[in-house]
Amino acid sequence: MKTLMRTFLKPLSLALFVAATLPTQSAYIRTSPPSDTLPATSPSPSFCKAIGGPAREAGNSLIQTSDGGYAIAGYTSSFGAGNYDVYVVKLDATGNLQWTKTIGGPENEEGCSLIQTSDGGYAIAGETYSFVAGDWDVYLVKLDAHGNLQWTKTIGGKEEDVGFSLIQTSDGGYAIAGYTSSFGAGNYDVYVVKLDAKGNLEWTKTIGGKEDMGVSLIQTSDGGYAIAGSTSSFGAGEWDVYVVKLDAKGNLQWTRTIGGKKVEVGVSLIQTSDGGYAIAGFTSSFGAGEADVYVVKLDASGNLQWTKTIGGPKDDGGRSLIQTADGGYAIAGSTSSFGAGEADVYVVKLDATGNLQWTRTIGGEKDEEGRSLIQTADGGYAIAGTTKSFGAGEDDVYVVKLDENGNACCAVSQTSQVGSGGTLSSPTPSIGSGGTLSSPTSSTSSGGTLSSQCP
Fold first, then answer.
1. pLDDT for 231-245, tens place per residue?
2. Range of the domain at 196
3. Contacts of 251 (CB under 8 A, 6+ apart)
C-alpha cells in the first residue's frame, strides 16, 4: 500500500523515515477519532483476539459501538475484490466475532478511520486506487448498522490524495483530513474535505508550504476544526509536529509547530477538558532512545504548556491518544525497547499534568502494533492494531481489551524513561482548495477467522 503516511510511521525507524520521505508500500498507522461517550457498565472481561485470513489484515481504527461491542476498520488482502480491500470487523462486548465486510475494487483500498454515524451505521475514510481521478484518491464509505453498503465517494485530483481521519460534524455531515499532492503550495499539503450528510462535496482546503500533512482531525468546541500532523516546511528541525486551527467554514485561524532539530510527528489530536489540545506521536530530537513517544499539551490559543517523552533505548512511538475519565491521558503505539518480540503494542498512562503512571506491553515473539485506542464504557481500555505472532495469516487484526488498570492476560508491566523538549513557532502557510467528487460502485464481501490468545 503506497502512501506517504506509512513511510513516516511503519516501521517506526527514524533512519528509514528520514531516508524515505516519498510514499512506499507497507502498513498504515492511524489515530482513532473520538467516539461518543457510552454509559458506564459493569466491567467486561479482558481479551486478546486476532482476526484475519491467510494473507494480511490490519486494524487501523477502533470504536466502541452503541450496543457495547466494537467495530474496527483497516485493510485485508485475504478477502475481497482486489489486492487490498477496506476491512470492517464487528465484535460483541466480549470480543466474539459478529460480522466482517470488505469494500473495494480491483486494485487497492484501505480504511484508515472509522466512526459510528448518528443513524447507527458506520462511515470509513481512507484511500482508493481502484476508483481514481489520478493516482490515489480519498475514499469515503457509508454502511448501515449491519454493515451493508449504502454509498461510496472519492475525492481528489491528478496526483495522490489520501484521507487519514474522519469525523461526523455537528451539522450531520462529514469532514476528512489527510494530505494532497494534487493541489496546494508544495509537494504535499494538509488536505481538509467537508461533505454534507449524503456525501456531497461542500468545500476543500489545502494548508502548507513545501511538505505538510494532516493525520488527525477534530471538530472543536467553537464549531471549527483542528488538525494535527507534521511539517517539513516550517519549524525547528527536519520535521515538526504541525497543528492547524480552522473556523467552521475552513478559514485559517492559526498554525503551530513543535519540535527540535530532528524529526517530530503528530499522529493523534484531542481537545482537552480545559479547552486546550493534546497531541501524541513520536520524537527523535528528545528522549531516551532512537525515537520516543511524544506528548504535547497546548492551551486553547495554541500556546505550549508542556511536553513529555516516554520510551527506552530503541524505537517507541505513540499512535493514538485519549483523555481518560480521571482527567489524565492514555496513549497506544508500539515499542521495540520493551516487550516479548521485535515490536510490541505499547500502552502508556499519564496523569493530568503528564506524569507517568504506568506502561504496558502486549505481544508475542514477532511484531505487534497498537494503532487505535479507546476508553471503554466500563472504564477499561481497548486497542486495535496488527499482529504477526498470533492469528491465521501473515498479519492479523489484533484487538486487546484491558481493565481500568491496564491489566489483561496478555499485558506486561514495564518501566519507561520520561523526558521533555520542544520549541514552539507560529508559521504562515499557503491556503488553497481543490478536488473532484465521484460516486463509484464498489464490491463487497466478507471473511475472517477469529482466534484468542487467552484461555
1. 999 999 999 999 999
2. 2-433
3. none
